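hey can u check if this looks right to u? its 138 residues, i copy pasted from the old doc so theres a chance i mangled smth
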Amino acid sequence: MSEQSAPSPSPAVKPSSDPTGPLPQEIADALKRDSAGLVAAIVQQHDTNEVLMLGWMDDEALHRTMTTGRVTFYSRSRQEYWRKGDTSGHVQFVKSVALDCDGDALLIRVDQIGAACHTGTRTCFDGRDFTVVTGHRD
C-alpha cells in the first residue's frame, strides 16, 4: 500500500454551527480513515501537554467534538458513540483539534476533569512504562 499525502485543511475552515450536520468538506477530504472508517484521536491536556489517552473517531464523532465543546468518540467494541464524561463525570472540554501531516491522526487538546482512563488513572499511560535502553545524542 503506498502512502498518499492528504491535503491539510485550511486553518480558516470553520465547523458548521449545527452539531448534527456534516463535517466541512475540506476536513472530510483530508481525513485518511482506516478500513472501519475511523481515525485515531490522541487526547492531550492543553496546558501541560500530558498525553491522556487515545480514542477513535469517525466523521460524526469528529463533527460532534468540533461543534459541541466536548469530546465524542466512536466505540469500536460497542459500535456506538460515547461522549467522554457522560457516565463517569470525567469530562474533556475541547480546546483545539488538529490533523497530522498524513491525515491519519487527530490531536485533540482538552481540559480534562478527573481521570482520562477508564481504569481511574489520570492517563491511560500511568504506570505502564517499559524498560528500554535510552538513546543519547552525542
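The CA atoms of residues 41 and 130 lie 23 Å apart.
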